[in-house]
Amino acid sequence: MPYSDFTLDSLRRSFGLTQMREPLFADVVPLNPTPWLLETLALSQQLIIDSEKARGELMVMPILLTARHLTHNRFAIYSGHSLTVDKDKGLLGECDFILTYTAPLPALQSPIVTMVEAKKDNLEGGVGQCAAQMLGARLFNQRDNNGIETIFGCVTTGEVWQFLKLEGQTIYVDQSHYYINQLAEILGIFKFIADKYSVSVT
User: Fold this and answer.
1) For residues 173 and 170, what is the distance between their CA atoms, to the nearest angstrom?
2) Is the domain 3-195 a CATH 3.90.1570 member?
3) Where do the DSSP E strands lie in the chain?
């Protein structure tokens, strides 16, 4: 089955992953959003954003672009890219956004460090899908022996953000949800993730 068919329970049964809820970003330092981001989101909110594609383009991508800018372009953003890792195990399908610590190239390369899944609604229902993509990303990395084993992810409606971390055989789900009026905290989380890795995009 593709990523979109997975739940946290089916990941437990298929891959032996366990789930824990705990604070993931208690020490994050907020980053002030840029005037461009605030203006872009204000203009977007004048439109009817009633699909996952629209949310991704009008709300999620501006936040990711700003996070990339504020972290000195230390990650690349791939939108709507296929991540087929193991068809037999169902680790295949298109991902809304993949963040990598390699220079932007036409072909996706490791190391992949973050998956971002945009949902119209039902945030919790997207957690299993995002977690499956994170597992696929880790296996993708392992094939290149790049040493990055910890993968972050998040599910977002644009207005609400839920972050995850895959480490070992455990999916950690952040106890907190972050809202659109907490842009500084959301941007700070992406900087926190960027700071965990020493490879920079040139």
Assistant:
1) 10
2) yes
3) 18-22, 76-82, 94-100, 112-118, 151-156, 160-167, 170-179
pLDDT confidence of residue 202: 37
Q: What b/e readout covers 27-51, taking b as 16+ CB neighbours within 10 angstroms?
A: ebeebebbeebeebbeebeeeebee
Instruction: Sort strands 112-118 and 94-100 into parallel, antiparallel or unpaired.
Output: antiparallel
- Token look-up 């390369």 returns 109
**Residue 201 — very low, low, confident or very high, per pLDDT cuts 50/70/90?**
very low
At 82, phi and psi to the nearest 5?
-75, 140
Q: What is the pLDDT of residues 51-89, one digit of tens each?
A: 888 888 999 999 999 999 999 998 999 999 999 999 999
In this structure, what token pair is assigned to residue 34?
């840029």
